[in-house]
Amino acid sequence: MPSYRPVDPTVRTDLRNDGDAWAEMMAGANILLTGGTGSFGTAFVERVLNEYPDTIVRVFSRDELKQSELRARFGDKRVRYFIGDVRDRARLTRACEGATAVVHAAAMKQVPACEYNPFEAINTNILGAQNVVDAAMDAGVGRVIALSTDKAANPLNLYGATKLCAEKIFVQGNSYSAPAGTRVACVRYGNVVGSRGSVVPLFKRQIAEGRLTITDPRMTRFWITLDHAVDLVLYGLTNLTGGEIFIPKIPSMRVVDLAEAVGPELPKEIIGIRPGEKLHEVLLTEDDASHAVDMGALFVVLPLHQSWATEPRWADGDTLPDGFCYTSDTNSWWLSPTELRTMLDAASYERRGATLATI
Fold first, then answer.
1. Are 238 and 21 in contact (CB under 8 A)?
2. Higher pLDDT, 55 or 12
3. Is 151 known to be catalytic?
4. What are φ and ψ of residue 268, in 5° steps?
5. How many other C-beta atoms can be found within 10 angstroms of the C-beta atom of residue 249?
6. More confidently predicted of 301 and 306
7. What distance in Å separates the CA atoms of residue 25 and residue 306, rounded to the nearest whole number?
8. What is the SS3 assignment for 58?
């Protein structure tokens, strides 16, 4: 059993100490947000509209229905809506014109869908990443940051493998983009509390059936809120010099504890691990750690071949000990069922006008 370490989910991490620099960076910014109608994209748009009054966001996605829903929620005074696909480089280049930064959140994210449709996953997650770098460089965008996943570290499934390739494209893309003044980096984090791609919506549907299914009682995962993910992206956009992978320090949870938080009185059925799934996730491998630094609230993986560097950065970070790795099962920070329930209530369902007690 893990030793649970209580945390107040409403308290943001030390990343927020960088908030003044974020505001300076965002002042007058024009940001292209690929995959802008997803869970992260919606949270990012909401943050921009609430905190940065002279920032423009260009939502780029291929789903016109979700865009119309986003327009109904946020209007279009400071949000622009571009129908397009990251597979279409010409459309991306047009969307990038005049942008000061790109946040790349578009991807195929469902492990089973990527396993069953490998060429589609490659076209979106790998070739789409290349298109984003090329389009940003051609349009002279200053800063680009891509969202990655813990599944990219020592990948077992195709989704993780495509995101690892995307990370490599974004890191080494600085070799080509640096002369144009474009700097590119990544953030890598774990499962997002209550997002559409998490297990929570499945549990929500199963409550009506009177049971919850668990793949393996030993399974653990990293857990991050949407607000924390947006913090990480803003930190990365502000501080990147090119080629970094920013990894937040976040808590772990046991899937059985999550099921207990959602349906404490419901029977739990063990159904076995699915193809492509891991028992535990990795955010920082031992090999990554050999060229990473500890910045307090996060780890920063530094590029091995940084030919584009013009100034020293991250020199104040602490080097990591030999053999260090950051995995969901060896983490020192664990969420209890009670805290998981509080986080789900605060970070996901409350935003939709409901609570776990009503689902």
1. yes
2. 55
3. yes
4. -110, 130
5. 20
6. 301
7. 24
8. strand
Domain residue ranges of the chain, discontinuous segments joined by +: 14-190+224-249+285-322
The CATH class, in words, for 14-190+224-249+285-322 is alpha beta
Taking CB atoms within 8 Å and a gap of at least 24, the contacts of 284-291 are 284/153, 284/247, 284/324, 284/325, 284/326, 285/153, 285/154, 285/325, 286/323, 286/324, 286/325, 288/153, 288/245, 289/320, 289/324, 289/325, 289/326, 290/320, 290/322
Cβ atoms of 34 and 82 within 8 Å: the answer is no
DSSP assignment of 219-269 equals: -EEEEE-HHHHHHHHHHHHHH--SS-EEEE---EEEHHHHHHHH-TTS-EE
DSSP string of 125-181, one letter each residue: IIIHHHHHHHHHHHHT-SEEEEEEEGGGSS--SHHHHHHHHHHHHHHHTHHHHGGGT
Residue among 151, 204, 249, 278 flagged as catalytic: 151
Indicate the average pLDDT of the chain: 88
277: tokens are: 């799934």
181: left (phi over 0), alpha (psi -120 to 50) or beta: left
SS (H, E, C) 78-94: CEEEEECCCCCHHHHHH
Indicate the pLDDT class of residue 33, thresholds 50, 70 and 90. Answer: very high
| pLDDT the model gives residue 13 | 54
- Name the burial class of residue 18, with classes exposed (0-12), middle (13-18) and buried (19+) by CB atoms within 10 angstroms of its CB: middle
Q: Are 137 and 182 in contact (CB under 8 A)?
A: yes
DSSP 8-state class, residue 314: S
- Residue found under tokens 């979106």: 124
Contacts of 221 (CB under 8 A, 6+ apart): 190, 191, 252, 253, 255, 280, 281, 328
Is the model's pLDDT at 9 over the cut of 50?
no
Q: Which amino acid is at 139?
A: A
